[in-house]
Amino acid sequence: MNAEELKQVKEQLKEGHFPQWMVTDPEIYKLEQNKIFAKTWLFIGHESEVKEPGDYVTRMMADDPVLMMKNKKGEINAFLNSCSHRGTRLCTEDYGNKKAHSCPYHGWTYNLVGDLIGVVAGNKVFGEKMDKGDWGLRSIPRVESYQGMIFGNLDPDAIPLEEYLGDMKWYFDIMLGRSDGGMEVRGAPHRWVAKANWKMTSENFAADPYHVQTTHRSAVELELTPKDPMYASYGHQVVMNNGHGINVITSPTGESANKYQGMPEHMWPMFEKNLTQEQLDVFSKVTNFVGGVFPHLSFISTQSGTEGNKHNHLNFRVWRPIGPDKIEIWVWYMIDKALPEEDKEKSYRGFLNTFGAGGTLEQDDTENWARIVEASQGKMARDRGLNYDNVINYLMGFDNLEPDENFPGPGVAYPSCYTDHIARSMHKYWLELITADMEEENV
Ligand code: FES
Ligand SMILES: [Fe+2]
């Protein structure tokens, strides 16, 4: 991006426009890899996925394969999942339990803290000079967690995770910290590849309840969701620092028909013990939380079932970019450990039917995301000079919505979820990051 283009992009974003060429531009994609995915906190997994010493999962931080495992002391570490000998992928399974990891290529073996403990034919072939201590697995530079959510960062100088999450912690406390014992992931994360750009999918969850009444029209026809086209607008859209945001969706009355998202009444005193008055106020009225942690972790806490018999389910998802127009979607279903097994099962079924890989709502969304990239790759849409007015529209709530000072949670809360405030804030932060050291040189 040259200085002229950068200036123009800045101006356009200020006006609530997003130049369409930036959606799938390969050069932009490269900048995102280096300036965003190598510098921000990326979700790796939940602590409940590695319960016992030796438990491990393999994950991806953008293009870097990660091996996360629990050691004998109960600590969780994350390493580059690449053998120090010739660099092949060390662990090839998705998850499991092992005392040590042996490389499939030449058989080098590493223990649970990543030390190289076995070299086939050892000194006989490598001589005395090679010190095994120098050839352990390479640690992910920073690994930190909040409410059981483990994130990694490739930048050793990054700000601490908690500071990065900022106000989002307050909302994580409601979704993840309301029950004694916290949450657990059920099963392995669902994973599939879709034609889409990661910015558009992140935006869809973090910032776009407006699509619900059209894209998910079939749910209205099946009487799973209300007929009122404004139904996903009621509540607040809350903008936070660093491109994070959440929609706290309620109802026309501002209340929910199912207190605490339909969680069983015997759990209420526990919520009331673990959360503050303000958090309880939000939690008792919310129907859906839907939002995102920049860059590409999204979540939705919703309810499925019939009226009076609704079951809450929460899923976190990562939109891992694998190209400018392709993502790998990872979805973790989570539920309160303290919920009785029978309710967990009902909740899980609700999740599978809606937001699992074969869920109805999931399929509606994926269609649209593919169509965005398909329609953004031609000459007109890709023109960097914007000669064809090729900007897309983020003008909802641009100059007609003021923050609601009375909202009890942190962040800047707007009194409608049909607004582009979070999307605009994501774009602003995104541009700040991708142009980080470009500014002085070019502009
Ligand atoms: S590449 Fe792993 S032992 Fe050679
Ligand atoms: Fe959707």
Describe this structure in words.
β8 (109-110) and β9 form a beta hairpin. The strands form five sheets. Strands 12, 13, 14, 15, 16, 17, 18, 19 and 21 form a nine-stranded antiparallel β-sheet that branches. 42% of the residues are buried. The model has no long low-confidence stretch (mean pLDDT 95). The chain is globular, with a radius of gyration of 23 Å. The protein is built from 15 helices and 21 strands. It is α+β, with helices and mostly antiparallel strands. The N and C termini lie close together (11 Å). It has two domains: 42-147, Rieske Iron-sulfur Protein, CATH 2.102.10; 160-434, Naphthalene 1,2-dioxygenase Alpha Subunit, Chain A, domain 1 (Alpha-Beta Complex), CATH 3.90.380. The site of FE2/S2 (inorganic) cluster has 9 residues, from loops. InterPro entries: ARHD_Rieske_2Fe_2S, RHO_NdoB-like_C, Rieske_2Fe-2S, Rieske_2Fe-2S_sf, Ring_hydroxy_dOase_asu_C_dom, Rng_hydr_dOase-A. Belongs to the bacterial ring-hydroxylating dioxygenase alpha subunit family. This is Aromatic ring-hydroxylating dioxygenase subunit alpha.
How would you describe this structure in keywords?
binds FE2/S2 (inorganic) cluster; nine-stranded antiparallel sheet; 2 domains; 2Fe-2S; Rieske Iron-sulfur Protein; alpha+beta; binds fe (ii) ion; four-stranded antiparallel sheet; Naphthalene 1,2-dioxygenase Alpha Subunit, Chain A, domain 1; 443 residues; 21 strands; 26% strand; oxidoreductase
